[in-house]
Amino acid sequence: MEAPRVRVLKVEGMDCADCARKVASALEEVPGVVGVQVNYASGKAYLVLEREEALREAEARLAPLGYRLLQAEGEGERLPGPWPWALLSGGLLLLAWVWDAFFAGGGLPYALAALVGVLPLARKGLLGFRRNPFGIQVLVSLATFGALAIGAAQEAAVVVFLFLLGEVLEAQATLQARKGLLSLGGLLPRRALRVGEAGVEEVPLSALRVGDLVRVPQGERVPADGVVASGEAWVEEAAFTGEPLPKAKGKGDRVFGGSLVEGGALLVRVERLPGEGFLAEMARLAEEAMLKKAELERFMDAFSRRYTPFVLLLAGFVAFVLPVFLGDFPGHLYKALALLLIACPCALVVSVPAAIASGVARGARLGVLFKSGAALERLSQVRHLALDKTGTLTLGRPRLVRVVPFGVRAEEALALAKGVAQGSAHPLARAVREAEGPLAQAGDHREVPGQGVFARVGGKEVGLLRPEALPLPPEVREAVASLAAEGHTLSLLVEGARPLALLAFRDEPREEARAALQALRRMGLRLHLLTGDRKEAALALARALGLEAGEVEAGLSPEDKLRRVAALAEAGGVAMVGDGVNDAPALARATVGLAVVEGTEAALRAADVGLLSLEALPRAFALSRKTLAVVWQNVLFALGLKGLFLLTTLLGLTGLWPAVLADSGALVLVTLNSLRLLRAPLP
Questions:
Q1: Residue 549: other Cβ atoms inside 10 A
Q2: Active site residue: 225, 388, 533, 579, which one?
Q3: Is 533 one of the annotated active-site residues of the chain?
Q4: The pLDDT of residue 149
């Protein structure tokens, strides 16, 4: 037996949420298909196949239902929705109205328009009846034939036309949402300028390989994720961060495929292939998030499964029970037919996923990668925000800022320190190596965990230690206390047991950190800085970022962080932002875990949301709150409109065509309302 494989395919003809259910139900019955997920928002089906032949069987199973499987990339899609039938039905309705106005033709022309328009609906309803007897096509068909039976041909024709028009508008709106999600891939250029031994050659993106050098002139987009090998330029990354202002990039800086070089030129070394870069990752995570339902979406699905049978029972009661006591069977049957149209839950079903899909897609374009709709929903509800220090609020790259010598020249101390630092990968050792100054030749490097790094220089053992590792003379103790109070991280250079110099390091706060924290505070969030660093260093950073001393908790172990986050989760919900391996347990325990993309793989796996940069954090909260506001607008509008027309229909104030407007109109409006999120202003 072949190993199961996953195929991602577009589904043509899937114009409504009810269609997605039919497609999923049909595909689940295909032998050899062991897993099915159909995403209405992106218009795709995810199939787990035991054998490749099952794909042909799946295509054959969907064809009679009016759907077609296409390759996820490359093959185009026809104009969405049943627009030919809508045009035909509308034309016949117009002709019927003209004929009736001039020749008093009675109901026959309207009946013809209704029958022609209902034909594709009835066929689709019959084909899917076994899987969903309460589908919208079935309900509209029953209402149409019932209206013709009681002589309401004109209303039957209007109902069919309005329904078909609504499906066309809904399909078009959905297509725009899908384009908003998939537009990320369009940022990549079609070709790249690869630099090789023969010079510069223009090649398609598919020819690029990891390690290739590509030249990106001014006005062109970077073809793939990579690192700047040479050159300087201003690069616009709005598609990733939402920040329209370009950033300066130079040697060693990371650039994303799809970013625009606005000034200057770069030579970039490719690190990830174009189809596997950050743009592709954002689109993949966004689609995966749409497959994972939010809590509110699951609730609305459950509600809709009860709503439709209830309204259908009410329609049966109105049609067959009330006439026994009140008479007027045709009048009550007319009301029941209108209730059939109101029974369709489409607007309710779409109200939540349409907004969630738009929110996830917008987030992907702002550098906020939601892994599920539930994460987007939960983020809007938290009241506390816990933040790690190193690598999250700071750059995570300490710099040597000061050398305090004891009995030697500062230049000599720095040369010795650089020689010793050659044998360690510790961030502080890297900072020493990067400092400008002479380098002493050293050998026999060794590292002692918990103490420091040692080497032999000129026949003597020299080490870089934690100041706490040795008993210190008063002069050195005073220097340690003074520099520690300023928030520096310290390392002691020693020869044997004799202190030679004190090295002071500082991990600079991110430029965007202060503005991001101020924006979060304005949103009403309570901030908590949780760090394993010393209290003095944490308080120095807090002062620089505008945090209060009461918002800082220092010297925490990973277990302490976990306990603190668990307590905050019980006190109104907490979002945790981190980037390191030690943050992973707290990220997983938080109501919502957010990880900076520059951080470790462990943190990213544990988090619910990925952040391209810290400046994307306020946007994540603003987007989640705005998305939930749109969700509730959709739900209340759909429920309110259904409830209103349910009442007016029972009172005899509205009839068939207002009922179909209540359904199709609500469906289009909640979809359009959700699409606002793709362009809504955010901080």
A1: 10
A2: 388
A3: no
A4: 80
